[in-house]
């Protein structure tokens, strides 16, 4: 029996992660055609306005902006509570236009100016307001507009503490509500899948006793919370009248990756019998810094910490990827498996997010579901990675059991060899030493009984003693033969078994016939002896317990 080979992940395994990442990007790019196009949007003129005051103090004098129009209708909010203000004009469009913000800010207000006069006070809505203040009961912020008119200008006032990209579109009311209904169904479907993966990981942890599943569930749950905030479902359905919860929960969602993922990665890579903090304080750096930032964000403006927490998370991803690459290159199968999940979910999601937020790349109707689809990939791949890790652990247990059996077999063989050596020595001593001495004693007793002088009584005693000595010598020879059959060494296995059958037939009530055929080159001396002992025991049991008169070997 040869020792088991060490468990190693297939060399092609990282390619599987790259394939999964490519599949994610292709789905994001081309799935819009499968889901159906969004309702058409209409062009409009948008110009930045220099204004830093509150929305309630805006006047229509700001509508005469001389700034050049923006090249695109997506803008990135500033950092802090300084508002972004824009003047918007519709040259043409439907009779019932709706201005839609495809990201939810803290506050968005719209002032309608007609002929330089405010038609009504600004309408404000957003995450800083209860959901009941929204014009439309939808996850997105939208403002109904008047029919296009050359003298109508809209002033849009947006406040968003953390940097965020805001695509603006103009649709018909019917088109907006139809698209919202489609997106809402997809949001609920993706959210349900992610919530199921959270519960699935918790159940797997309870069933398998693997804490890595718990850390994976907490990481997924934190991203799920962040997704509910970004898609607007949380503020609309979960805490509609408590807008103050939104921004602190943003920080909690952002920090989940560095609060729980380090423990997941460590528990994944390190054997289960090693304590959680075996790597020292290096593991605690990530969650401790995140926890401090979360606590600070609860008592100070959250936007001070949104960017640092995001940067901390990105740094953790980079460090973790470097460690996984190094471990995978030296043959660590756990690192190779985890690298598949990282390359298939986290890296492409970061690429897609950067392309959308910083380069303005459009993913069509899939754009609102960018984070959700990424989280579905992440939850699925990391859960599968854990399942594969358990399989690797079972393989290692099987290898350890095989190794133990190998050692046991070697020890058993050594014990048998030792016993056989001792039996051979005892048989040789009994036959060569004690046997010869008893034979000599028997010969002298017989000679003494035949000599002149002793009376008839002494002669009978001497002959009886000589007979008893001969019987003792025969018994010693029998014991010597059973300890180590000399016929096996001199005649070979086949003839030794024939002699065993013949001797048993002559001595016992069972006649034993035989039909034997052996290839002497295939068996060594130890195997020959073991086979001889097996048949010896079989013949003895047959004679003692079968009650048969004939047997065939």
UniProtKB/TrEMBL annotation:
One Pfam family from the record: 7TMR-DISM_7TM
7TM-DISM receptor extracellular domain span: 187-388
Gene3D superfamilies: 1.20.5.1930, Histidine kinase-like ATPase, C-terminal domain (3.30.565.10)
Keyword Flavoprotein set for record: no
Keywords (A to Z) from UniProt: ATP-binding, Kinase, Membrane, Nucleotide-binding, Phosphoprotein, Transferase, Transmembrane, Transmembrane helix, Two-component regulatory system
PANTHER family: NITRATE/NITRITE SENSOR PROTEIN NARX-RELATED, NITRATE_NITRITE SENSOR PROTEIN NARQ
Protein name: histidine kinase
Lineage, opening ranks: Bacteria, Pseudomonadati, Pseudomonadota, Alphaproteobacteria, Rhodobacterales
């Amino acid at each position: 029996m040869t020792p088991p080979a060490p468990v190693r992940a297939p060399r092609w395994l990282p390619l599987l992660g790259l394939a999964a990442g490519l599949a994610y990007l292709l789905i994001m790019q081309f799935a819009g055609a499968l889901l159906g196009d969004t309702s058409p949007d209409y062009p409009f003129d948008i110009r930045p306005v220099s204004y830093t005051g509150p929305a309630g103090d805006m006047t229509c004098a700001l509508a005469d902006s001389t700034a050049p129009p923006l090249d695109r209708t997506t803008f990135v909010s500033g950092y802090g509570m300084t508002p972004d203000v824009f003047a918007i004009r519709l040259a043409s469009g439907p009779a019932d236009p709706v201005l839609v913000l495809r990201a939810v800010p803290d506050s968005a207000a719209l002032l309608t100016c007609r002929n330089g006069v405010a038609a009504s006070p600004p309408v404000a809505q957003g995450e800083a307001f209860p959901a009941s203040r929204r014009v439309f009961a939808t996850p997105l912020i939208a403002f109904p507009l008047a029919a296009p008119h050359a003298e109508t200008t809209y002033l849009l006032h947006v406040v968003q503490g953390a940097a965020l990209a805001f695509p603006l579109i103009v649709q018909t009311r019917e088109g907006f509500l139809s698209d919202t209904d489609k997106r809402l169904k997809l949001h609920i479907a993706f959210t349900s899948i992610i919530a199921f993966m959270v519960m699935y990981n918790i159940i797997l942890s309870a069933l398998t006793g693997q804490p890595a599943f718990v850390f994976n569930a907490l990481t997924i749950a934190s991203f799920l919370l962040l997704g509910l905030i970004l898609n607007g479902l949380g503020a609309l359905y979960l805490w509609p009248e408590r807008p103050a919860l939104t921004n602190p929960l943003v920080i909690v969602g952002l920090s989940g990756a560095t609060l729980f993922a380090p423990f997941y990665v460590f528990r994944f890579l390190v054997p289960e019998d090693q304590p959680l903090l075996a790597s020292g304080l290096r593991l605690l750096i990530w969650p401790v810094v995140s926890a401090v930032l979360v606590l600070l964000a609860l008592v100070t403006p959250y936007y001070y910490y949104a960017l640092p927490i995001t940067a901390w998370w990105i740094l953790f991803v980079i460090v973790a990827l470097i460690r996984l690459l190094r471990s995978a290159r030296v043959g660590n199968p756990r690192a190779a498996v985890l690298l598949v999940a990282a390359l298939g979910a986290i890296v492409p999601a970061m690429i897609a997010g950067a392309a959308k937020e910083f380069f303005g790349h459009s993913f069509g109707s899939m754009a609102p579901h960018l984070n959700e689809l990424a989280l579905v990939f992440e939850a699925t791949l990391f859960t599968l990675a854990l399942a594969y890790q358990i399989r690797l652990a079972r393989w290692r247990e099987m290898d350890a059991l095989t190794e133990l059996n190998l050692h046991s077999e070697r020890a058993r063989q050594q014990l048998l060899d030792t016993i056989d050596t001792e039996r051979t020595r005892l048989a040789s001593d009994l036959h060569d030493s004690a046997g010869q001495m008893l034979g000599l004693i028997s010969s002298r007793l017989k000679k003494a009984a035949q000599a002149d002088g002793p009376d008839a009584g002494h002669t009978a005693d001497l002959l009886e003693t000589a007979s008893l000595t001969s019987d003792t010598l025969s018994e010693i020879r029998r014991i010597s033969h059973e300890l180590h059959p000399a016929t096996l060494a001199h005649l070979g296995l086949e003839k030794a078994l024939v002699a065993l059958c013949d001797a048993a037939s002559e001595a016992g009530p069972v006649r034993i016939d035989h039909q034997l055929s052996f290839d002497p080159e295939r068996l060594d001396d130890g195997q020959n002896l073991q086979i001889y002992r097996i048949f010896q025991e079989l013949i003895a049991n047959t004679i003692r317990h079968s009650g048969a008169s004939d047997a065939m070997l």
